[in-house]
Fold these 4 entries.
Entry 1:
Amino acid sequence: MTQAQHIIVVDDEQPAREMVGDYLRMHGFSVSLCDGGASLRKTIAQQVPDLIVLDLNMPEEDGLSIIRDLKRRTSVPIIMLTATASAIDRVVGLELGADDYLAKPCELRELLARVRSVLRRSSAVQPAIDLRIMRIRRKIEPDPARPSVIRTVRGGGYLFSPTGEAPALD
């Protein structure tokens, strides 16, 4: 049996956050609820999700700065879900790395369809890569279970270190 895909819903409005979370759970997803950027970062530190549904308008830290920060550190797909219908916010969010945009209030069936679509697109690329790296590691690593030649850089991909020593990262 496969593990349910994990989605984090970030919204400062508790009723909206819970409604989206409950709907996604009803459709087989594992869901974590966060009320802002700080709780999102804490949750991601424990488990990197498969997707984030993110409200742009929040009091402490706006969604655009959260997207900017997340995309520097990870490749997790993001769907912006917000009452802000401004074309500028949509364009900036997409240019910062968001994968889709949906205006509030939204039809939950449409959100579910967009979640599934973004997950299909993102998962189609990553296993073609992880599987190849795993096969290469089996051939070149002294101990494939503890890779030293091809290291995983969390949220950044892979790093080739032919000497097996950790290079200095800037």
Entry 2:
Amino acid sequence: MVSLFLAGQAWGQTGRGITIFADAIFYNGKVVTVDERFSVAQAFAVREGKIMAVGSNREILDLAGPKSQRLDLKGKNVLPGFIDTHAHLFIYAVENWSSDLESLEPQLKEFRQRELRVGSVEEGSASLKKIAAQSPPGKIINIRIQPVSVAEEFGRKNWLKEMDEIAPSNPMLVRLRGGDWRANSLVFKMFTDYFGELPEDIPTDANKKPTGQINNVVVSVLTGEIVVQKPQTLAVVYKKELQAWAAHGVTTWSSFLPTAKVMSGFVLLDRAAEMPIRFAYSHQMGSAGFPQAAGFYERLGNIAGHGTDYLWTIGVALSPLDGSYPEHCTSIQAAERVKSREKCEAEAQYRIMRAAVRAGLRMSGTHAYGEGSVDKFLDIIETASAEAGLSLEEIRSKNHVIDHCGMSPRPDQIERAKKFNVIWSCAPRYIEIAGDISKDYGEKYAHEWNVPIQTILRAGGRVVGETDDGALLRREGGVFAHINMP
């Protein structure tokens, strides 16, 4: 028997009683329901933009009225909309629709990133100095160094002092690999001029001075909160990016929300009923834009689940706890050349996390690459929850999430996460670097500790799927690109 809901006024009297007519009928297909039995049906009915019923051809065709559309699927598969639990569509939108941004706010043209391909660190420094010397004072310089091997070496040799010498009169951003960047003092001055102080999650030295290192979150704050003037501008490109993902079958996505202006862009779409897909966000506005983030989250209150059908919060996110490979954090022994690249210092983020967990908030949407960061994450879940007086059942009810599964988890971490009912959000894309991991740490860790989705499931753990890939829609296979890897 197919269950129906009563909606609208289009109904009729049949021999079986009152029937609510569907707007559209899809039949003769293989409808993958993803229910507890993973059952496959033949047909489904749609009314007012929602699934009305799923069942056999006969059951669903009975719901057709005189104005119902009928579509013969001819044996094709029908899948539910995909839920991407970690992607950054608001960042991708700014990159993919830069021309639209610049047409609305012409000052953004000077912020467009340029690629600089060089053969050595020395050549890169000299080229950057030349670019700065030829730029009007105060003009923002945004460069991505290629190839990655030179960019990584540049990052190891150039910090705040060196960046200031390269560009003394211009704010300069240099992107290295993934989410690792270098910036000069004039970039950090943009933050202090706007916020009054540096956000707490910007890395600083013992004297509370910036080190020159920043990450994607900080750059997204700079772009979405400081450089862009109007949230209406962001709303335009957000809608286009969400439409592109909807066309590939993604109906819901999740990410952190770093600033008030970025959130306002989505709120504008939501209020106008123009959100193409649903956005479940993790609140990061405190840690990404406030100098006293820990205190902010102590007072925020538990807002998980608050919002609308298309825009709601699912927890609190931190800035990255480490870098992506090879700048991640692990306890594995390896050669010094490998260990020297690891990044395990994230005291500001962990301080914020302790405050949030003690306040009873749910952790979600946080970049954690490497089992060393996972250890620290689970430690804080356990200790800060105990300090708050939470019982084990209360901890389990939070459904905390650890994102990525890159070089994690270890078998013992799977068991520990099960105890606290922690969910693993795993990105198959990180399987692509198994060769590099094997070379640096050994084959065991590349195959047993890197995105071990089957191992987690077989152990009774909980896994959800993410992409974390801004280029995904340009890859062959779209959302299936990383699943179909040889």
Entry 3:
Amino acid sequence: MNEEEFEEFQSGMGRPIAGQSLTNDPGNPAPFEKAPEFTELDSASLYIWETITDPEIYAPAMEALSDGQPIMDLVQLVLKSEFQKGMFNPDLMVMLIEPTVYMFMALAERQDIDDLVIYRGEEEDEEAEEKILGVTFEEEKIKEMKEAAQSGKVPAGILSSKMKEDLLDLPDLPAPPEGDPVPVPVQEQPSLMAAPQEGI
């Protein structure tokens, strides 16, 4: 995914007019308007782990990271998509940001992917600060993430024993051809503020 495609994704097409949600059919709520599937961090973290280690996501995600795609971009895509499916509420989604970053780091380490990029434009920033899903990560937190990425060590307590076992069973992925950009699948997703769609 190039920068233009990512910005288009972030902008969220078809934003509703103010008050439009008040006209939605209460008998047919969007998934994220219902009670969430997960309410605890541990179970939601395991769900996210199982989601990003699914071959359909795992392989292209690792290819994207090896091609220099920022981890924060992938984290935002995954969490926003799962929120829109009604898997967790906004508060739990925010709590999942940091664990999901480290999950991607662990997967990248498993594939021997070096020089991970944490967030878009980090090399140009004088002050390390990143905003994802409305949450600002300050310099100290970004520094911890960079150090973890460089050392290849995920902080203790992030990965459960099951996740560590799964890491050993993950297949080695073939290296992408040199010089060829790795395409990252772009899924059309409505804005979080968009009106619910039929059939979702």
Entry 4:
Amino acid sequence: MKLQPVLGIVLRQLYLMRSSPIRVIPLFAWVAVDIVLWGFIARYLNSIGSGKIDFTAQLLGAVLFWDLFTRIMQGVTVAFLEDVWTRNFLNLFATPLRISEYVCGLVLSSIGTSVLGLLAMLVLATCVFGLDFLGLGLLLVPVVGILFVFGIALGIVASAMVLRWGPASEWLIWPIPALLAPFAGVFYPVATLPAWMQSISSALPPSYVFEALRATLAGRPVVVDGLLWAGAIAVVELVLSGAVFAAVHRYVMRSGLLARYSAESVV
């Protein structure tokens, strides 16, 4: 894998944003809406609560980290969809570009846009609502790392879905974070879920992350083994997602589906 083609994919995303600054607005707009909405909800609950629970840390912190995961996943997917919307696949893969280089370019683009979104969330949550983000200390490292890896893995799988079934399947990928949120235990302990949902939660790295965050905020010791297990699951899922994308790419190339890519589903 060569670095120059990877940077070429990233550079294309930068040129797209430079030529159309309105593309930058979604990086901050929805993040701001979520932080402001949940920030005022948390402030209201603090005003009527007994003071034993800091809803700003519990709710706003959960929203911040879940939004971070969502931005990472959608960062990969949107970068991929730019090539879908512009019918650019034939141009890309008529070159000696490797599929691994293409996917790495998407991942780097997602990391860049996600960092911008994270900074916007931190500024709003800290300056407006007083969220002590740095109070988590070293726990921030595994938390952000696991969410980054899992978000990238899910973004690659979502891109593979569109590549296989065509642009009409785009609507399938946007609800994915919302569908996973109940199983990940973003706002409540996984123990409150029925057994069949808990079995699904055990395969989702974010469920371990939010359990660790709740334990820290409650003054309980963090289960380090859980975070290590979550990190291992996230890495395995990242490797599998790359294999899935590569397999789908081989299929659409050999079957000719790539050449017949259109705005409708491919059967």
